[in-house]
Structures are given as C-alpha cells and as structure tokens.
Amino acid sequence: MAEQKIIYQLNHVSKIFRDKNSEVIAVDDISLEIHEGEIFGIIGMSGAGKSTLVRMLNRLEEVTSGEVIFDGKKLGELSPKETRATRKQIAMIFQSFNLLSQKTVLANVEIPLKLIGVSKEERKEIAREKLKIVGLEDKVNAYPAQLSGGQKQRVAIARALAMNPRVLLCDEATSALDPKITEEILSLLQDINERLNLTIVIITHEMNVVEKICNRVAIVDNGKLAELGEVKDVFAKPQSDAAKHLILPTIAGDNPFDETNKNCYRIVFNGRAATEPVIANLVKRTGESVNILSANTRSIGGIGYGQMIVEFPEDPTAHKVVLDYFTSIGIQPVAIDKEVVI
Amino acid sequence: MNSTLWSLIGKGVIETLEMTLISTILAYIIGVPYGVLLKVTGKGEIMEQKVVNKIFAFIANVFRSIPFLILLVFLIPFTRAIVGTSIGTEASIVPLTVGTIPIVARMVEQSLNEIPYRITEAAKSMGANSWQIVKEFIIPEAMPSLCSGTAINTATVLGYSAMAGCIGGGGLGALALNYGYYRYQNDVLFLTVLVLVVVVQVIQESGVLISKRIRHS
Ligand SMILES: Nc1ncnc2c1ncn2[C@@H]1O[C@H](COP(=O)(O)OP(=O)(O)OP(=O)(O)O)[C@@H](O)[C@H]1O
Ligand SMILES: [Mg+2]
User: Fold this and answer.
1) Is B3-216 a domain of CATH 3.90.1150.10?
2) Which of A91, A107, A265, B202 is the most buried (most CB within 10 A)?
3) Alpha helix ranges (H) inside chain A
4) How far is the CA of A51 from the centre of ligand 1 (A)?
5) CATH code for position A260
6) Which among A96, A143, A163 is the nearest to B126, CB-wise?
7) What is the share, in percent, of chain B residues with pLDDT greater than 90?
8) ipTM value for the complex
C-alpha cells in the first residue's frame, strides 16, 4: 500500500484507571499512526488494553496523558460539541452489536441520520441503501431479536455506514460469531474498505482476523505496544514474546509437533501465492514432500492466506532442497523449535 | 337495590376513573422528567450530578414513605390553596397527583436502569447529545417496561382514589363509606368492591397486554 495520509496519530498515549486503593495502567505510552484507507488491526490478549485504546480513538475514554490526533485535530482539546461532531465521523461497532431491540432494522439504521436531522423520507432511503450494501434489504421490517448474530452485526455495520464515517472502529466485532459468519463479516468489512476507502480499525484477540483482512497490525501486551508493522512482516517473523504467543499458538492449539523436532517449519501465506499449488508444485518440482502437521489457511479468490506448520524431510539434502524451493518462490519458512513456541 | 343506587354506582365509577386518570396523567407529566433526572444524574451516568441526584432522590423517598392517608390530611391546606376547597373530585386530584409523582419517578428510573449502559455507549459513539441519548435510545428501549409500569401505577392511584374518597372526595370510595359503612348497606359495599376489582383487573391486564404487544425481545 502506497504512502497515505495519516488519519490517526497517537503520541505517547497512556490511560490509567485509578480508584481509592488501586491503579490499573490499561494503556502504557503507546505511539502509532493509522493511515487513511487502511485496515489496521490491534491485537492482544484479554485485558491487554485494546478496548481502552480504541475507546480513546473516539474519546469515549479520556487519555490520562499523551494525545490522540484525528485528522489533524487533538481530540483532547475539543469542546463537548466539537467532540460530538467529530464522533459523527467515527463510527463504531461492538461485540454485543448494541442495536435497539425495540426498533426495526430500518429504524435502527435510521438513528444516526435522525440525530443530524435528516428528513424522514430521506432517512428511509439512505437506510435502505445501506442495508442493501450489507445484504439485508429483505429484513428492513424485522426486529433485532429475529436476526442471527451475523445479521445483527450487519445491521450494526449498516447503521455505522449511515453516518458516512471516515473511520470505522470495530471492538471485537466478530468475537461473538462462529468462524463461518466471522469470515462473512470480515469479507464484508474488506469489501467496504475497498469500495468506500473507509479506514477500519479492528480490535481482536484472534490472530486469524488480523491475518485475513488487516494491512498493518499493532500487538498490544499489558498496555504496551509490543510490535507494529505490516501484517505479513509481523506474521513471518514475530519478534516480541507477545507476538509469538499470539501468532504461534493458533497453530499449536492441538500441538502436533514434539519439542525435539528440529524439522518443523512455519510457512506463512501472505496473499502472494495460492496455498495448494505451492505444496503440489513442491512434489512436482523436487520430488520431495513435506508432512503437513497443521494448517490454518484459507483461499480467497485463489490467493492463500494463513499459515502452515510442516515437517521437512529428515535427510539433510532433501531438507535443503525443500528449503530452497520455498525460498525460490518467495516464502521464508521459519524454523520452529521449543524456544520459539515457548 | 333500586335504580338510584345503580346510578350512584355509575356516577361513582365515572368519578373514580376521572380522578384516577387525571391524577395519573398529571403525575406522569411531572414524574417522567423527574425519573429521567434521577437516572441521568446518577453515578456513572451521562449527566452525573451527585448533589442534585441526592436531593431529588431524598425528596422522592420522603414522599413515598409517607402513608397516603396521612399525606391526604397533610395536604389539605395545600389543596385548598390550589383548588379553593378540599372536598370533591377535583380536590382529591391534588393529593393523588402529589402522592403519585414520586412513585412514577422511581418506577421510570427503574425502567430506564434496565437498559444496559452499552446502549448509551453506542449512542455516544454516534455523537448523540444527552437529550438525544434519552429520547432516541433509552426511552424507546424502555417503552415496554414503562408501559407495564404505567398500568401498575394507575391501579395504585385507583386504590388511593378510594382513600381520597373517604376524606371528602367523590367516587366509589365515598360511596362505599357512606352507604356501606355509615348506613350498613352491605350490598352497596359489596358491589363497590366488585366494581373496583374489575376496574383494576381491566387496567392491569390491558397494561400487560400493551406491554407484550410492543415488546420485541
Ligand atoms: N473503567 C475501568 N475502570 C477500571 N479499570 C478498567 C476500566 N476499563 C478497563 N479497565 C482495566 O484496564 C485493563 C485493560 O482493559 P481493556 O478492556 O482495555 O482490555 P482488552 O484488551 O479490551 O481485553 P478484552 O480482550 O478482555 O476485551 C484491564 O486490566 C481492565 O481491568
Ligand atoms: Mg475488550
């Protein structure tokens, strides 16, 4: 992605929750930039401070120190009125959807428009149009209770789009959904990002969410920024312990390799190549094969995303042949051993 | 029982309904904003105001803890000052309203409290101001609960109106007292009770029904 305008600039942002006898440093001196039009992931373990961080992006939470600059404006310096006006450019969707249960789908999507005084007819028209984008035009008269989780999140997305925002903040937007529906929602977000050039900030604790749609990612650990960079770089070579924790266990979940095995490699597919031909071609070209211990990959439009843990041949020559093959097609296998898996 | 008695009961029903409905409506006109005030100034709420909240909560509690019969007597001078008399249907509307306001306020507050804070957060994230958060988000969400609360409150006022009837107000209460108690006409007493039970039932059930009808979750 080419150099772009910076929409969010965070300078040494910290958030400390204090009460009488305790103090929690939820966000600890985080500085980062979010580019206009990108999908930016913020990932971390539970309690890492992700929600707190994202809530400072629309000033639902006040910073304790540091500054959040949105589109050149310091959020901390805005008046209440200016804050509300700014929030209208920053839509947010939530894990729990937060739809109004007593209003129809259409009325839910109309709300942000009602807030700014759009006329009834115009509201309905815009709301219908947004529901069409999320594929729910046939549910306008339904109530949220009649929808599935995925459909509710679609309504929330339509409601967010009705504001015509510059940024969409997603706090664990797919965490309440099963993997298939998560996929669908992520594809929708990706589609919206491309079509509308809408900047999306995604908070998640699931690596596969980041892996699937984010351009860049920030790994937050214990309130601190542990790692920041292009998803493909961070995934290929996680540097920090936090990153390794987050990236590797997704495969090690049903830990297939034993610690002594020095022939295990992690292969990351970052969208440059299709997964299937890579393995098939290995056999075709080199006559060697690898043992796939675990795979967490998916193919979108024939392009592979995700990662695999493979076992290379034990024989040193064959081992090298396989290694060279991967390198030649632009994939850098990362040796995995006890030390890396932690 | 003769036709005069029947017409007395008819008149009683109409007076009772008149007192009940007018008092309930007046109590809601003041009680709803009161309840909203209690809600929004509460701890951690959108317009947190400790002192204001404490004062208004205290006033509501004081009025709620006074037995209605005593409040009736206590308010006689006030009623006279407003209506010019302390006797009759119109006069009983004053204490009925005053006594019901804090009940309504508390019930409204409670209904609004049922709405999770995440709804407020969603509203804030859309740039809604405090008034919009209440009007466009919290109240519509609380509507079914507000409706069933209204039915309960109306029934309460109806009961109070019978008490007010004893202290110079009209309605079924006065009827029961005058004919049933002072003149030992048990049939009138019995009939009055029956009519009251039926009216309360009708109000309660229609409240439940409306609440169910409009609830979508
Ligand atoms: N309002 C608050 N008051 C006090 N402490 C808080 C508050 N909000 C969050 N915290 C604390 O700040 C830390 C970070 O919380 P946060 O919700 O940002 O984590 P998270 O990364 O979003 O976690 P999860 O994945 O579980 O949602 C936690 O220790 C939490 O207990
Ligand atoms: Mg969170």
Assistant:
1) no
2) A91
3) 50-57, 80-87, 105-115, 120-133, 149-162, 179-196, 207-213, 231-236, 241-247, 249-252, 275-286, 316-328, 338-341
4) 7
5) 3.30.70.260
6) A163
7) 69
8) 0.89
Query: Is A50 close to ligand 1, i.e. is its CB under 6 Å away?
Result: yes
**How many domains does chain A divide into?**
2
List the single range of A238-252, B5-19, B116-130 with lowest mean pLDDT: A238-252
* Domain ranges across chain B: 3-216
Intra-chain end-to-end CA distance of chain B, in Å? 50
How far CA B158 is from CA of B154, B162, B174, in Å, comes to: 6, 7, 13
Residue with tokens 């075709």: A284
Contact A64, A16 (CB under 8 A): yes
The reply to whether A144 and A233 lie within a common domain is yes
Q: Do B125 and A85 touch (CB under 8 A)?
A: no
Asked if A92 lies within 8 A of B217 by C-beta distance, the reply is: no
For chain A, the residues whose C-beta falls within 8 A of a C-beta of chain B are 58, 60, 83-88, 90-92, 94, 96, 98, 100-103, 111-112, 114-115, 143-145, 163, 169
CB–CB of B122 and A102 under 8 A?
no
CB contacts, 8 Å: B144 with chain A: 102
**Chain A residue closest in CA terms to B46:** A60
Same-domain status, A169 and A270: no
CATH number at residue A25: 3.40.50.300
Q: Are residues A271 and A128 in the same domain?
A: no
A59: alpha, beta or left, given left = phi > 0 and alpha = psi -120 to 50? left
Mean pLDDT of chain A: 88
A1 domain-assigned: no
For residues A341 and A249, what is the distance between their CA atoms, to the nearest angstrom? 8
Whether B136 and A114 lie within 8 Å, measured CB to CB: yes
Mean pLDDT lowest for which of A166-175, A333-342, B3-12, B63-72? A333-342
Residue A171 belongs to domain spanning: 6-245
Ligand 1 site-directed mutation target among A27, A52, A57, A169, most atoms within 8 Å of CB: A52
